[in-house]
Structures are given as structure tokens and as C-alpha cells.
Specification:
mainly alpha; 0% strand
């Protein structure tokens, strides 16, 4: 099963997994002094991946959901 897509997953996934949590953590730390901003951001990204995988693979093409698990984030 070819799980790689054509959206440059090699460069996009690591950049997103570093920059988004860092930005959310910096914002929450500066405004509210909350130390768990990056954790919440990663969980939100994981939830978004599940929604994306479900609607794009299972909802439209009925691709097996067990083959599209977002293991990059875990």
C-alpha cells in the first residue's frame, strides 16, 4: 500500500509538527502562562488528521481506514 501522497509529505509534516505547536505554545505562554499549549496543539492536529482521513479516504473513496492511520504525529 502506497501511503505517501503527492503533497510533499517529507517536508510539510515535520515543519507543521514543529512550527504550529511552537507558535501556540509561545502565544499561550506570553498571554496566559499556560505550559500545555504545544500538547493541546498536537492533540488538535491529530484530531484534524483523523477527520481529514475519514472524510477524504473513507467518506469519498471507501479506502480502508486502517491503512490511513496518521502515524506521523504519534
Amino acid at each position: 500500500v502506497d501511503w505517501k501522497d503527492r503533497r510533499l509529505w517529507v517536508t510539510v509534516v515535520p515543519i507543521v509538527l514543529v512550527t504550529f505547536p511552537a507558535a501556540v505554545q509561545a502565544m499561550l505562554w506570553e498571554r496566559f502562562r499556560l505550559p500545555w499549549g504545544a500538547t493541546v496543539c498536537v492533540l488538535a492536529l491529530l484530531f484534524g488528521e483523523w477527520i481529514n482521513r475519514y472524510f477524504n479516504f473513507w467518506g469519498w473513496t471507501y479506502f480502508p481506514i486502517t491503512m490511513v492511520f496518521p502515524s506521523q504525529i504519534v
